[in-house]
Sequence to fold (1003 residues):
Amino acid sequence: MNPLALRSLLWLGLFAVSLALAGFAPALGLAPVPVPFWLRVDLAGAISAAMRWLVETASFGLFTFKDLTRAIAALIDLPYQGARFVLVEGLREGRGSRAVTLIPPLGWLTVTLVMTALGVWAKGWRLGLFLGLCFVYLAAFGRWESAMITLASIVIAVPIGVAGGLVLGVAAYLWPLVNRVLSPVLDLMQTVPTFAYLVPILFLFGFGPVAALLATVIYAMPPMVRVTTLALRSVPTELEELSRMVGCTGRQRLSKVLLPAALPDLMVGVNQVIMLSLNMVIIASMIGAGGLGFDVLNALRRLDIGAGVEAGLAITALAVALDRLSQAMAQRSQRPGVVLRGSVWRRHRWGLSVLAMALAISLLGWALPALQTWPESATLSTKGFWSDLVKYININYFDQLEAVKGAMLGWLLLPVKRFLLALPWPWVLALLALAGAQLGGRKLALTCAALGLFILSTGLWEQAMTTLYLCGVSVLIAGLIGVPLGVLAASSETAARVIGAVIDTLQTLPSFVYLIPVVMLFRVGDFSAMIAVVLYALAPAVRYSAHGLRSVPPELIEAGTVCGCTRWQLLTRIRLPSALPDMLLGLNQTIMLALSMLVITALVGTRDLGQEVYIALTRADTGAGLVAGLAIAAIAIIADRLIAAGAAQARARLGLQGETAA
Amino acid sequence: MHPAPVKLACRNVWKIYGPHPERLLQGGAVPTLSEIRESQHVGAVRAASLDVRTGEIFVIMGLSGSGKSTLIRCLARLIEPTEGEILFDGQDLLKASPSEMIEIRRHKMGMVFQHFALLPHLTVLQNVAFPLEVQGVARNLREARASEVISLVGLDGREDYYPRQLSGGQQQRVGIARSLAVEPELWFLDEPFSALDPLIRREMQDEFLRIQKKLKKSIVFITHDFDEAIRLADRIAIMKDGALIQIATPEELVLNPADAYVAEFTAHVPRAKVVTLGRIMVPGAAENVAGTLPASTRVEACAGRIEAAALPHAVTDDAGRVIGHVTPRAVIDVLLGRGGA
Ligand SMILES: Nc1ncnc2c1ncn2[C@@H]1O[C@H](COP(=O)(O)OP(=O)(O)OP(=O)(O)O)[C@@H](O)[C@H]1O
Ligand SMILES: [Mg+2]
Fold:
């Protein structure tokens, strides 16, 4: 028997033992294994105490920590107020209803015009028109002010995130030491869920847009750092040598050769920063960001279906618009342009005329208020439609929906949950260590066991198992849906295009938006959470399996065909096994996305680690929030390391097979 | 003939890659190839010494991986040699400070890269003007100079194109123009034509010779195409496993290879392409001659003329004095690969 089959048999046996343990332990009256006191560490308390000390007493001599946070807050608040002034408020005199507007903000038509012009400039009329429609939609459906508040945050957060990411990325490129310090920090930041960032920031900076902006920047910056370092590293060596041969100084090398040559890659990073910022700005409405995210949050809290869907659609419009625009700009940076010579006017004709037109419209806005603010009478609303639709579905299909929900809960969700919760923790730790040892050797076994122990020591074992259960089931279902879709996308061009477009759009949506339809149809609970997670985490499962299947060497498939394989045999015997390493990477990504979404589903009433973070957030309890966040990170890291090791083994096995065949 | 002064010299240059390269050379040790390999190191350049004279085209040849690129990058100090000395106009380059290096590179050295190394975000004009821009030369001055070299390489009218809008041959012309913009005294070329197809390559070689005739640079040129080396080189260095095996004129290399490796390397070269009249002439003037030819003429270039004439041709040295004569018979011997030559 080959070792692989032996190992499968071993795990089958272990699974049976686990089932027995989980099934009989309660029946035999065995109490859950208590956690010894020396394994309980009050990390949360310690962190909270440290934070309190920071805020209340810490001092750097000349100034206190509090002064420092105030200074940072002021520094960010200034440009933010500027952006709000331009986009949202304008200049007003007086307060409340008696306020008189002295200088109005940019009107809807001006902003729409500028966005359209940007679209045309970046790609062409089609994109320009699309962007224009998106913004008209925001205005016509009465979402303008919220959208502009959100946009104001993004307008400030993105440049800070990009600049910060560039500086850190360049530093990591230039100095290996910086790279060595930075890269584990970035790793951790990518696994700690979004909510967990919010807690300490809320504690340090208080409730409000500044705290939200800060959280947004911190969340959106890490990918930019990574992209910058990678982009600089992948500049051809010859260009670097050229910069030295022509006698560039260090600064010239960066500004005239390396950064411009890396620009197309950097623009991909900018796109990521924009999309992550949008995602976080929406989530950060929980700590006072306002805007569209607040509208969604509000609607969810009141279960106001129409308002929720409308706000969600507005976010979708904004997200898709920003994504298309920034992607077009990234592509534009790769296209050679036409060199214009001559006066400033000749070279910037296009930009100057748009500017002039925007100015003219703004001035006209004094006389014609409809150009400034979309007239109330012309505002459309689909609230009623959505409420009616949902009501209709709920009345006519209630039984079917309930049946699906009940079946899933009864046959899948609850049994898995009960099983995992009943497992004694020493057994789970032992299994973790064993898996680590088999896939990656002693070091991985130790890592897994240590991370498991960490979770145990926080006293959040039950919540962690709940997280594991929800995440596990969701990933399973995402896989069951995603892999066949991937197979489909790999087998036909048309399917690939359609599926690709849907997946791309799904991925641009901020995670918050997924909650809306789910709550409308299934109300709160684990089932709703699961569906939201599956939707959000589906993309990588599809994409990686399609990619893996497509990159199977054609000779292999030809070899199979020559041997007389049927299509099904080709798929199961040749293509899927060869695509396994890629699919494992997709699994990894799916798990990461599932975990990050899971935290957000705390809003629909799950009882997992995410809920702990959410509760900590509402109480501004830094310690509890961070510890729960770290526990989620621990789960993510365990999954990541195990799968990475598994993928490496699979790859080695495939390589070996190739060798024996040759 | 008195040789021109030495422009660039390197003495006992080593470049060893691996965990502890300096240990292998400690205390003046001279590790053998197998010693280097056994200790998990790569001897990319081993004990290389050479002189490049002013106005000379010095070609480095060798198989892939023999260390040519590493050596030329050591000469330009793009890579720090593990050990050795590099003298540029008598000054030790390896002791030059960073700011001195910048000065030297800005004004005295130029390099043409194998894969062109054009900046994708700049137009042809801006690419060529780039070295001047780095020096802080005013825009109108540098663009005027760039236009000059652009027409020198025959790219007039393409100033506003971007690199990706040009063919490979055109891109390499831009690379050449750029390295000429600062009028370097020393010119490095690392397989500049190897990415081009044979027709364009030949065209570029002619172009290169034409430019060199005009500008008289000191040139270090890498290739692994022996035909190219023969066409261009004043002297050729053959490299193997990081060491320079023989440095000689193309004719010497073919006629007196230093070892079996060089002999094998040159085995398929038609003699007529390298042998000069000076080597096959009979000393002393002939009574009646059909014409005169310089001694440095290669047989290939004048075979038709000599063969067609009934009488021998007189052979003259650099100063124009008659030093011998060649018969059609001697030329035919070379063409057929007969006899000693
Ligand atoms: N950075 C490096 N680290 C380790 N080994 C290197 C490095 N650079 C070059 N080498 C090794 O040094 C040897 C010489 O490489 P080099 O690039 O100089 O060869 P080359 O003669 O230019 O070959 P080609 O004709 O293919 O360009 C090779 O064996 C190569 O693997
Ligand atoms: Mg090379």
In short: Residues 272-335 of chain B form a domain with the CBS-domain fold (CATH 3.10.580.10). Chain B has a mean pLDDT of 89.
